[in-house]
Amino acid sequence: MNLLAKSKEYVKNLTIYLVLIFMMIGCSNSKMEPFSPEIPTEEEEIEKISTDELLDLVQKRTFNYFWDFAEPNSGCARERSQDDSYDGNSPRLVATGATGFGISCFPVAVTRGWITREEAIGRMNKICSFLENCDSYHGAYGHWYYGDNGHIRPFSGQDDGIDLVETAFLMQGMLINRQFFNGENQTEIDLRNRITALWEAVEWNFFDSGDNILSWHWSPNHNFAMGHKVGGWNEALIVYVLAAASPTHTINKGTYENGWFERGGKMYNNGRFYGIKLPLGIDYGGPMFWSHYSFIGLDPRNLEDQYANYWEQVTAHARINYAYCKANPKGYEGYGGDSWGLTSSDNYSGYGGHHPGNDVGVIAPTAALASFPYTPEESTKALEYFYYKMNRKLWGTYGFFDAFSEHYDWYSDGYIGIDQGPIVAMIENYRTQLLWNLFMADQEVKDGLTKLGFSF
Questions:
Q1: What's the pLDDT score for residue 31?
Q2: Residue 45 has what pLDDT?
Q3: What SS3 class is residue 294?
Q4: DSSP string, 362-430
Q5: Which pLDDT value is given to residue 352?
Q6: What DSSP string describes 170-237?
Q7: Which residues, given as ranges, of the chain have pLDDT below 70?
Q8: What residue ranges define each of the domains in the chain, with the CATH number in brackets?
Q9: For the packed helices 164-180 and 237-245, what is the interaxial angle rounded to 10 degrees?
C-alpha cells in the first residue's frame, strides 16, 4: 500500500473511531438513539417483571414519542422518528392524526404521574396556538404540516388541502382533553374555551359536496377532485359521529346512512373466519387500525345501531387477525400464537397496508398491543414475546419499533406517530377505560350518537 493509500485508510479509521466516541458521549442527550441503555447484551437475561409493570413501561416509553420527541415549535407529533423520504424538511414534518392520538394520551400521562397537569396544559396551549395560526380551511386541517411555519405539506398531487379524517382524529383528542381539564381555575377554563373554538370552527357539513356523503379531501386548488368519500367499514366512523355531534356545522342522520353505509363499498360481511363471525367489512377484517383509530375515545363496548353491534365487530376483527397469524397459512417464520398483528406499517421495502389479504410476513406491535381491550390474553402473549424474546432487536427509546419480520430478518429502527398513539391509548382503555369514559361523557358526543340512532 503506497503512502497516500495508507494516509487515506488512517483518516478513515480515525473518523470512524471519533464518530463512535462522539456517539458514546452524546447518546444520553439524544432523542434518537436506536436502543435504550436498559437493553441487555446477548449474554444477559432480561429481567422478568409483572404484566402491570410491563404495561406501565411500554405505555410510558411510547408516550415519550409525543412528549420528548414532539416537534419543538408546534408541540405536535412528528410524522415519524427517522425519515428522509419526503423532503429535506422532514424533521419538522408533523401529522394531524398522530397529534390527535398523542394529545388523547395527555390525561393518561397526568393520571399516571409521567407529567404534571400544568405541563400538559402548557403543551396543549402550544398546540392550540399552532392550530389557530397554521393553514386551515373551513375549520379543518391537512394531513401533514411543517411544524416550523404551519404550512400544509401536500400528501399527494391533488391532496394539498384538507383531510377530514385526520381532522376527526385531532378533534377526538381535543374533546378528550376538554373533558379532562375540567377545573374551575382560569387556566383550565381558558384552555377549554380554546378547544371549543377549534372544535366549533370545523365545518363538517361543507364536506358534503352535494351528494349527501362526506368527502375525505378538499383542496383550495382542486376542490373535491380527489373524489374519495368517507364510507365504511374502515377507520373513519368517528368522522360521522363528530359531524353529527357538532353544535355549529352538523350533519343529519341521512348523511350517515347514505354516506357511511350505502356508499362505503363492502359494509356487510357476516362470514365466518376461523369459526368467528365477522359482521362488517372485507374478508378477515382488514388491517387492525380500522378497529383502533375511531375507538381511542368512542367506547365500543355497548355501542350499537341498526346496522351493527360494534363490540362484536371489533373483537371479531382482532380475534380473526390473531387466529390468522397463529394458523400462518403462508408459513412465515416468527408467526404464531405468541407473535401476531397485521396492520399498516413499515416493511422491508417501504410502507404497506398489511392484513390477511395482503400478508407480506411483517408484524407490527401496534396491531396486537392496541387490541388489548378486545383480546387481552392474546395481546399479553404478544407483549411478552415482543419484550422478552425480541427485545434486543425491537425495543428502543420510544418503545417497540414500528414493525419487524423474522422471516426476512428485517427489523425497523424507527417509529411512526400514528402507530405509537393507539398503543398508549388503547392499553389505557383496557386498564381503566379512562379515555372512553372522558369522551363518552361529552354531552355533544352523546347528542351526536343519539341523532344517528346509536345506543351506548
A1: 36
A2: 75
A3: helix
A4: -B-HHHHHTTTTT-HHHHHHHHHIIIIISHHHHEETTEE-S-EETTTTEE----BHHHHHHHHHHHHHH
A5: 97
A6: HHHHHHHHHHH---SSHHHHHHHHHHHHHHHH--GGGGB-SSSSBBSEEBTTTBTTT--B--SSSTTH
A7: 1-44, 83-90, 263-266
A8: 57-452 (1.50.10.140)
A9: 60
